[in-house]
Amino acid sequence: MSRIGRLPVVIPKGVEAKIEGSTVRVKGPRGELNYTFPSSMEVTYHDGAIEVKRTSDERSHRSLHGMTRALINNMVVGVSSGFERILEVNGVGYRAEKQGENLVLYVGYSHPVVVEPPAGISFEADMRIRQIKVMGYDKQLVGQVAANIRKVRPPEPYKGKGIKYLEEKIRRKAGKTGKV
Length: 180
Hints:
Strand order of the largest sheet: 11-12-7-13
Distance between the termini: 64 Å
CATH architecture of the largest domain: Alpha-Beta Complex
Number of domains: 2
Shape: elongated
Radius of gyration: 21 Å
Structural class: alpha+beta
Number of helices: 2
CATH superfamily of the largest domain: Ribosomal protein L6
């Protein structure tokens, strides 16, 4: 049986969870999320925890078991404490700043690049440490917005200039050696 799938999802105080048919709704202080789980999963809520069980041991059901539990857990964590992704801006003259709700990137183009946050996402830009924080309650949306920001100017391998994730390691290449 799936090690992740058999763990119960504990619902913290301040978070409300409902199971309506094949939909799980989770509401908390940061927002509300819902997820329609596959019919091959049995999701039950009792004693302040959500449990996910599968109907059979088919390969597809086994693979959905842990994923369904992980998605529900991410919903609970998101509406209670939220998620964040940190990006780092490297390069001479490269910077990011916040104008209202929007994020404005100056990364070597002839024009500034304006990134508008979708609903449920907020930005923080700290240029002392050259970092951008993408924060929100939907883990998938936070990751997608961070990937879109990184895509504006991905890091290049020669000088390491560009926008990268904080934990990302850039494999550096040697440049041209020149004639002797």
